[in-house]
Structure formats: structure tokens, C-alpha cells
Amino acid sequence: MAKLRATGALGEEALTDREREVRDLLLQRLTDPEIAARLGLSPRTVEQHAREVRRKLGLRRRRSLSQLPAAFTDREREVGQLLAQGLSDKEIADVLGVSERSAESHAARVLRKTGLQNRTQLLSVAELLRADGGESPPRR
């Protein structure tokens, strides 16, 4: 499950605006007909968008959406990208112009939100995404 959650966190940018709308409504546990009514789409179109959301986020089942991490702040996204390059807290602090303690706190939140236990797991997921052609920051 941690691997799926991490992949979701790193694959968020792959979603279209419409897929983000569908994802957000799915997270509210709305049914396809309810989502269709809100967005002015057919239930079948909603089903197709939901399938794409799951595919892009690396989720096998619809209920896995409820296990997605909370949205990242801009700073957490920056720190996550730097973590995926293998940078230490000190290096991240230097790059971002913040204290080492702040970098450490942001890194801890990134790991918590992705469901990963450590940086090694994050690096492994980032490497898998690079090997799979997914969007991931280049290695340092």
C-alpha cells in the first residue's frame, strides 16, 4: 500500500483538470451519477475519467482513492522532489534557503503523507517512475 500511495503522490501532475475534478468528488465518496450531475457529464464519461485517475495514480481499486495522501503544499512538493534526488536535509536547506530543522520537518511531512517509512523507499519509488517513463526529477 505504501508503494501505491507514494506513486500517487508523485503522479499527481499527470492528471488533467477534469480528472482532478473527478478525483476530488470521488474522494468525497460521490457515486458516478452524482459526479456526472455535478459536472454535466454522462455517468459513463465519469467512469472513464475515474479509471484514468486510478491508472495514473497507480491504484487498482476505486476504494484505494480514500487512501491517497493529503495534498502537498508547494514547499512539500519542492522538498519531495529534492528528496527524490537523494539530497540530505542540510542540502535541501541550502537549496531552499531555510533552516536544516525546517527542511527536516518538511521531509517528515512528505514521508508521512506518502505513507513511506524512510527516504530509501522514496528513492526506490522515484527510480521506478523514472524507469517506467514517469515524470520524476532527474538524479543529482
Q: Domains counted in the coordinates: how many?
A: 2
Spell out the helices and strands N to C.
Answer: HHHHHHHH
Share of helical residues: 55-70%
Poorly predicted spans = 1-10, 134-140
Q: Could you say what the CATH architecture of the largest domain is?
A: Orthogonal Bundle
The oligomeric state is single chain
Under CATH, the homologous superfamily of the largest domain reads Winged helix-like DNA-binding domain superfamily/Winged helix DNA-binding domain
Q: Output the CATH class name of the largest domain.
A: Mainly Alpha
**First and last CA, distance:** 28 Å
Question: Beta fraction of the residues?
Answer: under 5%
Structural class: mainly alpha
The CATH topology of the largest domain corresponds to: Arc Repressor Mutant, subunit A
Shape: elongated
Task: Tell me the total number of β-strands.
Answer: 0
Main sheet specs: none
